[in-house]
Amino acid sequence: MNRAAIIVAGGRGTRMGTPIPKQYLEIGDKPVLMHTLEIFHKFDQSLDLILVIPENDFSFWEELKDKFGFQVPHQVVAGGKSRFQSVKNGLGAIDWDEGLVAIHDGVRPFVSKEVIGKSFEEAERTGSGIAVVPLKDSIRKLTDENRSFYQERQYFRLVQTPQTFDLGKIRQAFNVTELHHFTDDATVYEHQGWQVSLIAGNAENIKITTPEDMDYAEFLLQKSKT
Ligand SMILES: Nc1ccn([C@@H]2O[C@H](COP(=O)(O)OP(=O)(O)OP(=O)(O)O)[C@@H](O)[C@H]2O)c(=O)n1
Ligand SMILES: C[C@](O)(CO)[C@H](O)COP(=O)(O)O
Question: What's an example of a GO molecular-function annotation for this chain (predicted)?
Answer without folding.
Answer: 2-C-methyl-D-erythritol 4-phosphate cytidylyltransferase activity
